[in-house]
Each structure stands twice: as structure tokens, then as C-alpha cells.
Design brief:
Layout: E1 9-11, E2 17-18, E3 34-36, H1 39-52, H2 77-83, E4 92-97, H3 103-116, E5 121-125, H4 130-140, E6 147-151, H5 155-164, E7 169-173, H6 190-207, E8 210-215, H7 228-232, E9 235-240, E10 247-255, E11 263-269, E12 272-275, E13 293-300, E14 303-315, E15 323-326, H8 330-343, E16 351-357, H9 369-381, E17 389-391, E18 394-395, E19 401-402, H10 407-416, E20 421-424, E21 435-438
Length: 449
């Protein structure tokens, strides 16, 4: 009796699998996205799954030989910083970002920098012709003899090109446009993306070629395709920023060769994306004081950034006042507003409150709590705060102001940018020229207004 074929369905948006067809994906919520995988596609799935979860005989950690990781520079300080100190041969890096943010521009510039140091680089584009890339390379000053362009979407042709020359770096733009003739599915489908990434990873590991893959993102901001992609690659980077503004940020979300706490900050110029030289002055305004504006110092990896927190408090005309936060956690904003109502008796339940972090950056730590509270009180009472003051501290539910890590580094950066006064939980251990006022309770903030 013939063995019954096992049915397997897969979501074409996120790669979720099920043994029966589903109308709505339980993982990403997309409708009518499940298709049935044929036997060939199921074999590809088994092959890639085995690679991700390979098993071997365990040995004592004292008997394991440490891998010596070598790196070479991309000649771009911010790019090297996010990668952990430079490019690792044989690594596979996935870079995602919204359309128009500058992914192709950045990598073409990096490709030109690497080619300038006598390393052969192959830039593969499935979206543009070689002539279009040449136009952008002229603007970026990325024309070098060791930079090769290939306009191709067929994986087998790309692999043949890798056999002709000894390339050290390969850039794929983008993974969703490449297809393999071994599969019948369309380019960009989950099975195609998985198979192509698997083959590129195997090639990178076998030949020590450093590969960079550009990936499209979904409307939710995640890299399109199956989640196994992020497990297969060594590094996952996201390119963030508003296309209408000059500042872009490259943030690491996974890095097998370094820390994910660092961010790279770039500036869009006529010559393309370049490392931001004067980062400190990009995120706050040094003009005259205005109500609803307060400065804070946040840590992004190993660097301190002075940020401007803006708040707008207006009387509400609706029974349910609006609460909105851009660049700051909305749930944390609601907590701070409730705290102000209880501890300082501010009638904020009758006011709309809007909070924004200037410069398009998103704060992911709690050190800005004090600045958010200061900006809200400033806007509510219409009393400007000095641009020479910074507010640094975490606020608890009891109204206590807590100290934050790396306070000395934050204060040194504030002092370097001309800030003369800092309000925080406690005074630093090192002696600085900046005046520090220790405030341990939220109720004492009213003394500053």
C-alpha cells in the first residue's frame, strides 16, 4: 500500500507552518497566505532545518579550541562599530530597512571603500541594471577597479560568477528578488528565500567570503520572510530613520561576533551616507528656551547622546484625553502621567499629552523619565526650562528618582556640549565642572519651576 503523502502548509508572509490550510495566520495575522508545499519544497525545508539545528557529540568546554576571529575594516567607522569592530570573513549579514532609507546607498559606498583597499567586491543587484548602479557609484565616488557589478536574479548564475573570481566580499541586493531554478515557486516566496539563503551561507562558510544580504521589511517593521532567516545568518542589522530627515541609524539585533548594544549613526549628504562627525548636536536645539522642552543624556551602546524631549499639554475637548508618544514608550508615558496626578496633583486627566523625542531617535532605556516629567510640567505651567540644564534619572511608581548607569560618562558628554547644570538622583563619583543637583523625589521637581 502506497505511503500517504504528508500535507504541509506554509504562510508566505512569515513562514509559519501548519498541517492543514488556515484562513488566517496565527503568527503574523495575515489572511489567505497559506499555500501547500510540494515534495520538492518540503525537502528544501528539511535540509535547511537540519543545518540550523545540527547535533554532534558533546565534549568538555576545556577541550574545545577557541576560534580566532579575524576582521578587516570597511573604512567606515560607524559601520565597523555596529559589526563589532569590522567585517569577519565567512560571515553572513542580513540588513533590513524600509524602502528609501538608504540600504543600497550605504552598502554601495561600503563596497567602494573595501575595493579601494585592494579587496575584490561583487555587488549583485536584482532590482537595478549595472548602468543605474554606475550612476549612483559616480555620486558616491565608489568607482574602483576591484568593485564588480552583476545585474542578475538567478542564483545559479551568481554562483558561477563566484567561481570565476576570488571575491572577498559579496553584496546581494536584495534577497527577495533572487530565485533558484531548482524551485518552481516565485521569487520572494518563503521557500525561495530560504533555499537561496541556505546556499549563500554554505558558500560563505566554505570560501570565507563575507556576504551582506539586503532584505525587505513588512509593514510591521520585521524582515520579510521566514523567521529561520534570522537564525541562519550571523548578524542581523536594521537600518532606521525617516527618509525626509538627514540622520539614519544602523542598529544590531543579532551579532555572533560582537555586541548588539552599539548603533551606527549616519548622515545623508550629496555624497551619500557618511559617518556622522558631529553627532552630539544633531539631536537637540541650542536656540532660546521654550516651554515643554527638556534635555536628557541617553546611552546608545558605548556612546552618550544628548536628546531633546518635547511635550505638549493642552486642555482636552474629549471625555477620554489623548496620550501619544513618538520615540518613547507609550505605556511608560501613561505610568508617569498617573504618577504626576497622584504625587503632584496635576489634573492631567483633563488634558491631552503628547511627547516626542527630537531627531527621530527612539529611547529604549528609562533614564529619560525625569526629562519627560520636566517637559510635561514645563508645558503644563508654560514655563521654559534652560537649555543649559539636563535631567537624568529613572522614576519609580513610588515617585522615587533612581540613579542610572554610566552617570559619569553622561555628565562628561553634557559638560562637553556646554550644559552647565544637571538634575539627577545622586552626585557623580568624579569631580566635574558641571553643577549637579541631587533630587530623590518627584515632588521636589516643583522647586525647579
Amino acid at each position: 500500500m502506497a505511503k500517504k503523502k504528508r500535507s504541509l502548509f506554509e504562510c508566505q508572509h512569515c513562514g509559519e507552518q501548519a498541517t492543514k490550510w488556515l484562513g488566517k495566520c496565527p503568527n503574523c495575522g495575515s489572511w489567505d497566505s497559506f499555500i501547500e508545499l510540494n515534495e520538492e519544497q518540503q525537502e528544501v525545508l528539511k535540509k535547511t532545518t537540519k543545518l540550523v539545528s545540527t547535533t554532534s557529540k558533546a565534549k568538555s568546554i576545556t577541550q574545545v579550541k577557541q576560534d580566532d576571529i579575524t576582521r578587516f575594516t570597511s573604512n567606515n567607522s560607524e559601520f565597523d562599530l555596529v559589526l563589532g569592530g569590522g567585517i569577519v570573513p565567512g560571515s553572513l549579514t542580513l540588513i533590513g530597512g524600509s524602502p528609501g532609507v538608504g540600504k543600497s546607498t550605504l552598502l554601495l559606498k561600503v563596497a567602494g571603500n573595501i575595493a579601494q583597499s585592494n579587496k575584490k567586491v561583487l555587488y549583485v543587484s536584482g532590482e537595478e541594471s549595472a548602468g543605474q548602479i554606475k550612476l549612483r557609484a559616480n555620486r558616491l565616488e565608489a568607482n574602483h577597479d576591484d568593485l564588480y557589478l552583476l545585474s542578475e536574479i538567478k542564483l545559479e548564475e551568481i554562483m558561477d560568477e563566484l567561481l570565476r573570481e576570488n571575491y572577498e566580499v559579496v553584496i546581494i541586493d536584495s534577497i527577495q528578488t533572487i530565485y533558484s531554478a531548482a524551485l518552481t515557486s516565485a521569487p520572494g516566496s518563503v521557500s525561495q528565500v530560504r533555499e537561496i539563503t541556505f546556499e549563500l551561507m554554505r558558500k560563505a562558510k566554505d570560501t570565507d567570503i563575507a556576504m551582506f544580504i539586503i532584505g525587505h521589511i513588512t509593514k510591521d517593521g520585521a524582515i520579510a520572510g521566514p523567521r529561520v532567516l534570522e537564525h541562519m545568518v550571523d548578524t542581523v542589522l536594521y537600518f532606521e530613520g525617516d527618509a525626509s530627515k538627514e540622520i539614519r541609524m544602523l542598529r544590531g539585533f543579532k551579532n555572533r561576533f560582537g555586541s548588539t548594544s552599539e548603533i551606527g549613526i549616519f548622515e545623508m549628504t550629496n555624497e551619500g551616507l557618511v559617518s556622522a562627525k558631529d553627532i552630539a548636536s544633531k539631536f537637540f536645539d541650542k536656540s532660546k528656551p521654550q516651554s515643554g522642552s527638556a534635555l536628557t543624556v541617553a546611552m546608545e551602546g558605548s556612546r552618550a547622546l544628548i536628546l531633546e524631549v518635547q511635550a505638549l499639554v493642552t486642555e482636552s475637548t474629549h471625555p477620554n484625553p489623548k496620550r501619544s508618544a513618538t520615540g518613547f514608550d507609550a505605556n511608560r508615558l501613561n505610568m508617569l502621567l498617573a504618577l504626576l496626578e497622584k504625587k503632584i496633583d496635576l489634573p492631567l486627566n483633563h488634558y491631552d499629552v503628547f511627547v516626542n523625542i527630537s531627531g527621530g531617535i527612539r529611547i529604549k532605556e528609562s533614564s529619560a523619565d525625569l526629562a519627560v516629567i520636566a517637559s510635561i510640567i514645563s508645558s503644563f505651567r508654560d514655563r521654559p526650562l534652560s537649555k543649559e540644564s539636563a535631567f537624568i534619572g529613572e522614576v519609580s511608581l513610588t515617585g522615587e528618582i533612581k540613579d542610572v548607569y554610566s552617570i559619569d560618562m553622561r555628565l562628561k558628554e553634557a559638560q562637553a556640549q556646554g550644559i552647565k547644570k544637571a538634575i539627577c538622583a545622586q552626585k557623580p563619583s568624579t569631580k566635574l565642572e558641571i553643577k549637579v543637583f541631587a533630587v530623590d523625589e518627584v515632588t521636589k521637581m516643583l522647586e525647579l519651576f
